[in-house]
Design brief:
The complex is a heterotetramer, with two copies of chain A and two copies of chain C. Chain A is of the alpha/beta class. Chain A has five helices and 15 strands. In chain A, the strands form three sheets. Chain A has a ten-stranded mixed β-sheet. Chain A has a three-stranded mixed β-sheet with strand order 7-6-11, with no helix packed on it. Chain A is globular and about 50 Å long. The model of chain A has no long low-confidence stretch (mean pLDDT about 95). Chain C has two domains: about 160 residues, Glutaconate Coenzyme A-transferase (3-Layer(aba) Sandwich), CATH 3.40.1080; about 35 residues, no CATH class. In chain C, strands 1, 2, 3, 4, 8, 9, 10 and 11 form an eight-stranded mixed β-sheet that branches. In chain C, strands 5-7-6 form a three-stranded antiparallel β-sheet. In chain C, helix 2 links the parallel strand 1 and strand 2. In chain C, helix 5 packs across helix 6. The longest helix of chain C is centred in the middle third of the chain and has 12 residues. The chains are: A alpha/beta, C alpha/beta. Chains in contact: A-C, A-D, B-C, B-D, C-D. Chains B and C meet through strand 4 and helix 3 of B and loops of C.
Amino acid sequence: MLDKHGIARRIAREIKDGMYVNLGIGIPTLVANYIPDGIDVVLQSENGILGMGPFPVEGTEDADLINAGKQTVTLLPGSSIFDSAMSFGMIRAQKVDLTILGAMEVSENGDIANWKIPGKMVKGMGGAMDLVACARNIIVAMQHVNKRGESKLLTECTLPLTGVRCIKKIVTEMAVLEVLPEGSFFLAERAPGVSVDQIREATAGKLKVPDEVPEMTV
Amino acid sequence: MLDKHGIARRIAREIKDGMYVNLGIGIPTLVANYIPDGIDVVLQSENGILGMGPFPVEGTEDADLINAGKQTVTLLPGSSIFDSAMSFGMIRAQKVDLTILGAMEVSENGDIANWKIPGKMVKGMGGAMDLVACARNIIVAMQHVNKRGESKLLTECTLPLTGVRCIKKIVTEMAVLEVLPEGSFFLAERAPGVSVDQIREATAGKLKVPDEVPEMTV
Amino acid sequence: MNKVVKNAEEAIRDIADNMTIALGGFGLCGIPEKCIEALVKKDVKGLTCISNNAGVDDFGLGMLLQKKQIRKMVSSYVGENAEFERQMLSGELEVDLIPQGTLATRLLAGGYGMPAIYTPAGVGTEIAEGKEVRKFKFNGMEKEYLLEHAFEPAFSIVKAWKGDSAGNLVYRLTARNFSPLIAMAGKVTIAEVEELVPDGELDPDQIHTPGIFVHRIFEGKDYEKRIEQRTVSPKNA
Amino acid sequence: MNKVVKNAEEAIRDIADNMTIALGGFGLCGIPEKCIEALVKKDVKGLTCISNNAGVDDFGLGMLLQKKQIRKMVSSYVGENAEFERQMLSGELEVDLIPQGTLATRLLAGGYGMPAIYTPAGVGTEIAEGKEVRKFKFNGMEKEYLLEHAFEPAFSIVKAWKGDSAGNLVYRLTARNFSPLIAMAGKVTIAEVEELVPDGELDPDQIHTPGIFVHRIFEGKDYEKRIEQRTVSPKNA
């Protein structure tokens, strides 16, 4: 089983040199800490930054410089600031190569739900609907099961959708899964110490298991 | 009969304090020279200027600073530069209060033709089609008749149109005319020394003449 | 063209009950603090507010919510605000949640005179209900897009870093966010700035919002610029 | 992310016959002189060029026209070019004339991933032939709009004043014109700059084209920057 840092570390390996990457709130934000050396990546924050750097050193926070999670951040050399129309323009035009975001539920055909629990929690979708509708390359970072032990990888999402047929890859504490075009989760990798049966048990949607499921290197 | 400076001077009187004005090539460009004192006006050039100033003093021309007629110009204090999408954005959103441009033909229902003579002259419409389609307030500066003595104020335009039912006011060497909604030229003012009959003769489209036609003050 | 007004009170003098206004800011970053205070004081009611967020309980638009001056919020993200959540769940407050990029682009459309735009955001979700869906090919891929209409708020209110009497605005860092779009979309646009400079001091090449979009401008004093999530790295270097 | 290439030849290495390319510039102002020269030297043929103008007979795109390298021009204004007029009237050159604002907005649409936009420009004229016409209400007025599609050129070429290795660009005065839009619309975007500065030297608040839109950048030497219409005021002050 991976902890959230393990999930972030595994996802970081998906990032290739030269990519522009948008990181969502939560585990995705952690991914920035694990980008391998020698990989040149530019982080986009949808409130209007390219070239986002780490959190500022204490005492140097600037109220005018935050990321999409409203956290104080810094800029790296070569960065740029722009308005929200241009920010979502570059997302919509698929100039951003990779989007990493969290989810409450993902279905076997790649639908995702992450913005609303009717009657309970309505925070809004922020930029998530734009990101999932536009990005060519989306990785979901999520827990395989919820707090009540119920699978979050489903045949169909039960919560209001954020986007349809858009998720291609999921990294959980138990596994790396790919969403196949015909509509099933393909088990690509197991987390260290996790068995195929455990993953099968934790996955409510259709799970396609190859003969050999390699253990992931994190 | 007015000369082109007279036409420009008469049009300048239409400009009100606080207006943003786009001036086309030719006679409209001259209008800038006759804006009355105490009238605060900002000139827009559709290649991306607000706050355009006069031609530069000899020796200070800057190849990077031209107007939409490709002439070297200057900037006034409080000016701004922007790209062509924003320039036509502000035109389309009717933030520009007044457009003054030339025409080859205008029809009695307010159609205008000024960009093409089939088989002979095809320079392109530049920004004219956007300007006439978007502006709320357009004044045409033109000669009443062409070089062969034929009227340019017609029942219907014979040349390919630039825009339909968009012209409200025309200033020629002979008269100020308004285009009435039902489709006719209303003779609002005569140029000094020009008779109503002369104007009637030079106007091929329907001309509505009030009992009294004041001579214009230029 | 001198667009300078004395203060926030004068700038918002004709914002009346039941109007639709748009306000710049992302979270608490770049919000028009002074005009929001003045709206609270003026106690206009029944406002429809277009703004990406709704502030926090005691700052930003949260102050208008506390006084129940807002009838409807048009936003993309409204977390971090307990009073908001209470009013929304109880039905006191109408809420129109819109994808962030759609919000930005509908404001751009308002500023650029485009009555409608197409975006794929929200296709197949409840956001798409009742909307025209249309297929287009872009970047080698055919997919479905929603038709979304331009925003045309009666008033827009933004906060900038610097401005001049001609109404030109320059924003600082991510305090820019939605503000240039909101400034363009308003039928009347009000700008409050940290520093009002003489005409000619701002570099014409570096104006984010040209003055044509701004109708009233004033310098605000003593900005609080509250930080919503102070995140820092340890001090050892 | 280092996007610096050696020179124009390297930057345009894979622009091949019959491709569609977009080029910045308004008249001769802000044109990518070095890349145009390199295209002339490379002698690629059958190009479709999206550019507001077509240069003059011996400068700018006129040089490509002289060598008959252009199959089709997509422009708003093509006056001031005798060879152009000759090729067009004789049918050697295909010409798609587009209203200037439509051209700009179709490029913006390409850069912003909007497959199509609506504009009133050209409604009721020959430009509207075969196009979808649709009524919308905007600014209190109902009128007709044309549906126009995004430009997606295979290559975009722009010239900027300053740039850095991350591809960020700053333009100077009206040399900006269409260039930021063209830079965004290209599948591959090439920028030539008067001055290539180290990363971190450009103010992040003052970037006109963020580096994400630019794939290759180089510093050009000895710009001619020819003036098309030198108009001056008398020197007596």
